[in-house]
Specification:
Two copies of one chain form a homodimer.
Chain A lengths: L5 E4 L2 E4 L3 H8 L2 E2 L2 H11 L4 H4 L3 E5 L1 H9 L5 E6 L7 H17 L3 E5 L1 H7 L5 H17 L7 E5 L4 H12 L4 H8 L7 H11 L9 E6 L3 H10 L9 E5 L27 H11 L8 H7 L7 H10 L3 H13 L4 H33 L4
Parallel strand pairs in A: 5-6, 5-8, 6-7, 8-9
Antiparallel strand pairs in A: 1-2, 3-4, 4-9
């Protein structure tokens, strides 16, 4: 892997990602200003994640909007592979999906792929991934979804509904296709090989167009789904992609639920958050205060600044002030980290309360076969 | 494929099968006289399908008997791929399984693999294979099984139970394994690739040893299951194999539900049976009566005789008389066919009555997730 190379697959993200290159590599479309303005107009307001390019790419978003303007509603679908507790990176597409749901008044399906994580992680049992699925569901519900228009699908619990749909998809995908798209080899287990058809299934759970907000690393699954859709008489799913959320240890790779010190979990205490950010958050600052005051920091690579930009500081003016102060050297890395720690802990205080309340509500959200 | 070559896979049977060679090729064990006598002693009587070598091969049948003698019961499992109506060849392992169930007083699971036939047959929809599954279930029930100790599994209806078990198996099988055992290629669809793990699942549905009576062409599936079983802390399934039932058009290949004129369906009318046997049943007789009287017929290749031997004439003395008369030329092909037509029609008269009665009982047999 040369200096500017990177790898993005559903199971591996490495290197410093050049998102313009990735758009070309994946064959997706950049979200232009025109498209952004159209979403904003239909939604009645804009969203900082669109404005700031956190959601940067799409497939067929225009078609979704065309149909919506004609009065044909879409539905939303996203999900999570439950290999551990939820971290703050996972919340990005969920929060954005919630905003879309509220503004466009549409149904939402959230898939927890306990089987996938069992197939892909040598050391995880199906009992463990299912346990994490229920834990992750609490985080999703805590963001304020309503059971009236939001259903949670857990693969092993809802296989009765998913499998007949997945079978239609699976018949149209061969091993070569999965090799080309996921890089599977002869050593890949047959659960993993079949699995992509189960991630396709919720796309066809309603007879409407679907829009999927998701991390761009998951795009390959739906590339296959989009190829298959017309062959089984269905509409191609539309996608809107967010960038990878960097790990605490900096750009290159994404935040991973399985590496504890690179990750802020939604269940972390204020003390743990403080410690992780202080100790591990990759800094764009200078080696000492004197040099920092003189030369300034680099917010583009500073993880604390990036977390504010991506999630924790929706106010553009406040963010710009932090950016400029850090860049000029007026703000020290320690001060920037203090701001982020406070923002995260304020968010998590409310989130953790809602998360506990979600335990009593979860049954209302579970999809019934 | 040279003269004495043959191919036996779950989806393709061709050539004149040398069963001794097949035992070596598959790595199974021949049912010896000792083993046959042991089954007979434990069962309290013998069965003509064992005596005549219709069931000719096994894996771990000795272990099943050892455990049974210690008081540890096994359970039975067999099945059918519902690609069409049931033909009389399908009944062979079912009738034998019923005998085993009665004599050993054990539970029985019958799997109808509607998904497999959907994956493997380009022109069949899942609705069609499921419809055939329910039709095939009637034939199974018609043989006299009791709902108290017999459950029918339909893959797409019982996937909620099967999938978590299949997932354990699927994680331990890679694409190479399926290539080696089934001859899959890069063009094989991913439903087909995954499917073998679903045929494995019923092996582990009870925490007891399982014995599977089945056509020897299905052995490859359970070769994989047997490799996986110890890796997931389970007992290896034991198998008892029957020979392939020849098509009407003669030795080489098996009776196929998808080729109408080579097959007697359980739903055929007496007239249709008469016509099919008279017109299509491959004859071991001579070209004309004079030559037949002089040289005699060859019962070894005569399909009508073989059907009597395999299924329709359990009485050894009666069968021997037919054999000798045909071989000597005393019995003409037309006379032999008359005997078979009457036997089949007598059998089907009762079977078809029971089949209709089964419609009211089927619900009691369906496995509940």
């Amino acid at each position: 892997m040369s200096a500017d190379d990177f790898i993005v697959t559903p199971w591996r993200v490495e290197g410093k990602i050049d998102y313009d290159k990735l758009i070309k590599q994946f064959g997706t479309e950049k979200i232009t200003n025109d498209l952004l303005n159209r979403v904003t107009k239909l939604a009645g307001e804009d969203h900082f994640m669109l404005r700031r390019g956190i959601f940067f790419s799409h497939r067929d978003l225009k078609t979704i909007l065309d149909e919506y303007e004609k009065g044909n509603k879409f539905f939303l679908y996203t999900g999570r592979g439950p290999s551990g507790h939820t971290h703050i990176g996972h919340l990005v597409p969920w929060v954005f999906a919630k905003w879309l749901q509220d503004k466009f008044n549409v149904n939402m399906y959230f898939q927890l792929t306990d089987d996938e994580k069992f197939y892909s992680k040598q050391d995880l049992s199906l009992e463990e991934t299912k346990k994490f699925a229920y834990e992750n569901a609490l985080d999703f519900i805590a963001l304020g979804f309503k059971p009236e228009n939001t259903k949670i699908i857990i693969d092993t619990e809802n296989i009765q509904t998913l499998y007949p749909i997945a079978a239609q998809v699976a018949k149209k995908i061969n091993f070569s296709n999965t090799k080309a798209v996921f890089g599977f080899t002869n050593d890949t287990n047959i659960g993993m090989i079949f699995y992509t058809s189960l991630q396709s299934a919720p796309c066809f759970i309603e007879d409407k167009p679907v829009l999927i907000p998701l991390g761009v690393d998951q795009d390959p699954h739906f590339r296959l789904t989009r190829d298959v859709a017309p062959k089984i008489g269905k509409l191609k799913p539309a996608l809107i992609h967010n960038i990878m959320i960097p790990s605490l240890q900096g750009p290159g790779g994404k935040m991973s639920a399985s590496e504890e010190n690179t990750t802020i979990y939604t269940t972390d205490s204020p003390e743990v958050v403080k410690k992780k950010i202080s100790k591990y958050a990759f800094s764009g600052g200078q080696p000492d205060v004197e040099q920092h005051r003189k030369e300034g920091g680099n917010p583009d690579i500073d993880v604390s600044y990036q977390y504010l930009r991506i999630f924790f500081e929706p106010d553009d003016n406040a963010l710009k002030k932090i950016h400029d102060d850090y860049k000029s050297g007026k703000m020290l890395t320690g001060e920037l980290k203090e701001i982020l720690i406070e923002k995260i802990n304020n968010f998590l205080k409310i989130h953790q309360e809602n998360r506990e309340k979600a335990r009593d509500k979860i049954d209302k959200f579970l999809f019934e076969n």
